[in-house]
Write a structure and sequence with these properties.
By secondary structure, the chain is an alpha/beta fold. The protein folds into two domains: 2-202, YjeF N-terminal domain (Rossmann fold), CATH 3.40.50; 220-503, Ribokinase (UDP-N-acetylmuramoyl-L-alanine:D-glutamate ligase). It is 44% helix and 15% strand. Helix 9 (250-262) links the parallel strand 9 and strand 10.
Length: 509
Amino acid sequence: MQRAAQGLFKLIVELIEKNHQNFLLSFPKITVFAGKGNNGGDGILLAAELLKHRYNVKCYSTAHPSEYQGESALAYQLFLQAGGKIDVIHNDADILSVKHFLLKQVNGIWVDALLGIGSKGVAHGICAKLIEVINSTKVQGKSLCVSVDIPSGIDVDSGEVFEPSINADYTVQMGFSKISSLFYPAKTKYGQIVFQELKYPLELVSRSSSVKIFSVDLSMVKSFIPERKITGSKFDHGVGMLLAGSYGMSGAAMLSGSAAMRSGLGLLHIFSYESVLPIIAANLWDAVLHPIVENVKTNIDYVKDFLISRKIDALALGPGLSTNPKSISLVKNILELMTMIDSKPLILDADAINAFVGSTDLLKAYSGELLITPHAKEFSRLFQEDISEYAPYDKAKFLSEIAEKYSLNILYKGAPTYIARSSGEVYIVPTGCSALAKAGSGDVLTGLILSFVAQGLELYQAAILAAYVHNLMGLLAVEKDSEYSVLASDLIKYVGTAIEILKQDDIKK
């Protein structure tokens, strides 16, 4: 609790120095709202620390001091020793008094330490009324609200937002990320997140969840960026094979191929239908093109000879491929061929995912690394389970179970993006940009994954890096245009810029 209070104190002082000149002369503009649990104890200990450093602070509590236990009781004693006094909120008259007090403040700092991670369900009674007052008067007084660990009124695990709930400007998370902070709509309640290390024992953290869930941060993403080899040839920077495109959907092959080449891939072979190859050739000059003909056996033999005779580091199947019988047969046969010849990393997207509806056991039989990249409907069709409305933790748990059962990796598209490894771990890429909600955006993502895998990353690493870069490309495109008008084809020009930004040492999170 002492370490938690230190993290809170540090942020409060930084906010004072940044936003408030001539602050706290006589009127108490730091107000702490405490509950009776450990979260409230953190707030009370913060108040004691502020008093020790001669800051003027007001402390309200929804519990009588006699209700404090353990560390919270000790925090209260330290607060009394520092000269503090707690005003207990008993009834509606007290709520009205708090409201009048807050309305007198301008540019104050309010600390929400009401409900912690142990709280379940909707806030009620005095606590609910106090949350409503804090939210309404904060806006009127241009004040900042700092939540301790989690904004009061949010379920820490499910990410469900109950009302009323605190609209925090900052949240100091204790020890590690709370799963609800990674997901919308709860994510919008947290404001800017600051971490305070508490050095929990690793075994304690591991026991707290049946699923190992990791939040992807900038340091992880930066560590995955493939290095360029100064003396390397195109073969040293990865060779990829892409099966994509069909009549009316030639753009999918061009988007995937362009993204792959723009993100560092040394050489790309594109297999597509004869009818659309001229269109692809006219718009994508950098790839080697291979025709798919009407005869299914001819296609399979051609691909087999190609895979045996050529160096291929990774394959991606599916963008714009269609679900006609020829395409489905070819996708299934390539998966079988790769198992027999050389099980290179394989990515299944879009119609290549749909090809296995009703025959998911074939996925389990693949002997190499396998990644599928479904959106919600594709996942539902493939595994007969619609998880789009699942609570965040339940969704992660289900994805983990499917990934382990079928020995594959899953990139479940959305904001945020879930990436489940075949070993059961789930990574959350906590980003989102509505500019990416356009047809063709997923084709770009597939091209990025193919490129990063072919350059030497593991499939799950490539998926994480690609999802992060993809989002950053969207944000860069929005700076020049609008989230309404950005097209998937607009994203391609920002691939290199996004990667170079991530490589910078001083990038702002």
